[in-house]
Specification:
By secondary structure, the chain is of the alpha+beta class. 35% of the residues lie in helices and 26% in strands. It has 2 helices and 8 strands, in the order αββββββββα. The strands form 2 sheets. Strands 1-2-8-4-5 form a 5-stranded antiparallel β-sheet, with no helix packed on it. Strands 3-7-6 form a 3-stranded antiparallel β-sheet, with no helix packed on it. The chain is elongated and about 95 Å long. 14% of the residues are buried.
């Protein structure tokens, strides 16, 4: 029964993939000019935005951070990791907005001292890094996996290993039963 279900699911996936290839891929518009494509920070129609954020097409299109009274000498964005050299020109706290959605797991810190900076979500969903008055240095903002996430990955790996080893033992037992049945049939 399990084998039949697996075969049915496999057949259904092959049929659906074939249907998509025939109906969609032949008619899809192909974009060859990569300069006109949307950048990797594009949020499409806002489907990944938090529910309380109002979608704006312009919100995630700046390639660089937005800040008033903050001097930025260097900025590098590599997927979800940002490094920038900056200086807060104010005596009080100031916020620099980075074109990344703020979700739990991000951390912003000074690369020299390791000092953590608090972060907030701006009105358009981008991340705001709060800099203390007169701050000058290099900031790194990156996503860090939580211990719960790492534990989940470990449990998934352990479950896969358990299933693999259990399958090997099951195959050995089946082979032993077949040998036993062959020897029993030879005795008869």
């Amino acid at each position: 029964i399990v084998r039949s279900c697996i075969m049915c699911l496999l057949a259904a996936s092959v049929v659906s993939a074939g249907y998509m290839a025939v109906t969609y891929l032949d008619t899809a518009e192909r974009i060859e000019d990569y300069e006109q494509r949307d950048a990797p920070y594009y949020v499409s129609n806002g489907e990944y935005l938090p529910s309380d954020i109002v979608y704006s097409e312009d919100a995630f299109h700046p390639l660089e951070p937005i800040a008033a009274d903050i001097e930025i000498d260097y900025f590098e964005k590599d997927y979800n990791r940002v490094i920038m050299n900056c200086r807060n020109l104010l005596d009080g706290e100031n916020v620099v907005r980075v074109p990344i959605l703020l979700y739990r797991g991000y951390r912003a810190y000074d690369t020299a001292t390791g000092e953590n900076f608090s972060m907030l979500r701006s009105e358009d969903g981008t991340t705001g890094i709060v800099l203390p008055g007169g701050y000058q240095g290099q900031i790194c903002m990156e996503f860090e996996k939580s211990y719960l996430w790492l534990m989940g990955e470990f449990l998934s790996l352990a479950a896969i290993l358990f299933l693999y080893l259990n399958k090997r033992n099951l195959l050995k037992r089946i082979k032993q039963r077949i040998k036993i049945q062959k020897t029993d049939s030879e005795k008869i």
